[in-house]
Write a structure and sequence with these properties.
CATH topology: Rossmann fold
Helix content: 40-55%
CATH class: Alpha Beta
Distance between the termini: 49 Å
Bound molecules: NADP nicotinamide-adenine-dinucleotide phosphate
Number of strands: 7
Number of helices: 8
Shape: globular
Radius of gyration: 17 Å
Strand order of the largest sheet: 3-2-1-4-5-6-7
Order of helices and strands: EHEHEHEHEHHEHHE
Low-confidence stretches: none
Mean pLDDT: 97
Largest sheet: 7 strands, parallel
CATH superfamily: NAD(P)-binding Rossmann-like Domain
CATH architecture: 3-Layer(aba) Sandwich
Strand content: 15-25%
């Protein structure tokens, strides 16, 4: 009997926070996972050392001009991936009026432009297989709003629009495109939110708690499964009922 080759999943920002939880979850589910970020963290290195199905690849989404070459090298090395998880993102906290233009450009450059370009190049390879799953990590802030995060919100709302239209382009070749919109999770990105604010978020959530990174990762894993084959063009909210 031929042993089936593992399906490859590329997870951007896979070295910490939600991305690392997604890498763990997909590796446990039997995927070969490529965790891409600017650097390899100790926790990712430990996982790579323990699990031969997880590898690290250096990727800087701010180096836009290198994304085409990076994607070509990726496909040469790993083949066309089954799944692309666009998870990497940055957030600069601050009101729009005083935010430096370079910070606005950086957020849109990494969260939107680079994500679109990487998806363009990686999805091309998926086309040949007529098979694939793309998951874009959005945020509830794309639709709820949060003081001091207007640029970040714009970048996440872009993910929702991108998801819907791209699902129409790629549906004919059997590639699904969905977004997952997490509520607040405790990662380095949300470290600026103080305990009182976090308590308020918990109190206002239907389940009286936050969603964890592993719960959001499980939703990504579900969207990659056969059970989710008919789901495309959706934004799935995972926020413990914060926006209910
Ligand atoms: N935390 C929350 O409450 C929350 C809520 C809703 C949605 N989200 C979304 O969840 C996703 C993961 O966020 P997180 O909370 O896990 O944040 P995080 O801990 O700050 O992780 C961000 C990830 O993005 C990567 N990244 C940043 N800039 C990059 C660049 N130029 N090139 C390549 N990778 C880059 C980081 O790796 P390096 O910096 O090492 O390269 C890191 O792996 C993001 O899309 C975020 O918008 C988070």
């Amino acid at each position: 009997m031929e042993i089936p080759k593992k399906r490859v999943a590329l997870v951007t920002g896979g070295n910490r926070g939600l991305g690392f939880a997604i890498v763990q979850s997909l590796a446990e589910a039997g995927y070969a996972v490529v965790a891409a970020a600017r650097s390899c963290t100790p926790q990712l290195k430990e996982l790579v050392d323990q699990n031969e199905s997880v590898v690290f690849e250096a990727l800087d989404l701010a180096a836009r001009r290198e994304l085409h070459e990076w994607s070509k090298r990726f496909v040469e090395k790993y083949g066309a991936p089954y799944a692309l998880i666009n998870n990497a993102a940055i957030a600069h906290d601050g009101v729009l009026g005083t935010m430096h233009e370079s910070q606005i450009e950086e957020v849109i450059g990494v969260n939107v432009t680079a994500t679109l370009l990487l998806t363009k190049y990686i999805s091309r390879s998926m086309l040949r297989n007529r098979l694939g799953r793309i998951v874009n990590i959005s945020s509830i802030i794309a639709s709820t709003g949060f003081n001091g995060l207007s640029v970040y919100a714009a970048s996440k709302a872009a993910m929702n629009g991108f998801t819907k239209s791209l699902s129409r382009e790629l549906g004919k070749v059997n590639i699904t495109v969905n977004a997952v919109a997490p509520g607040y999770m405790e990662t380095s990105m949300s470290a600026g939110i103080n305990d009182a604010q976090l308590d308020q978020i918990r109190r206002r959530s239907a389940l009286k708690r936050l969603a964890s990174t592993s719960e959001v990762a499980s939703t990504v894993k579900y969207l990659l499964s056969e059970d989710a084959a008919a789901i495309t063009g959706t934004v799935l909210t995972v926020d413990a009922g914060n926006t209910a």
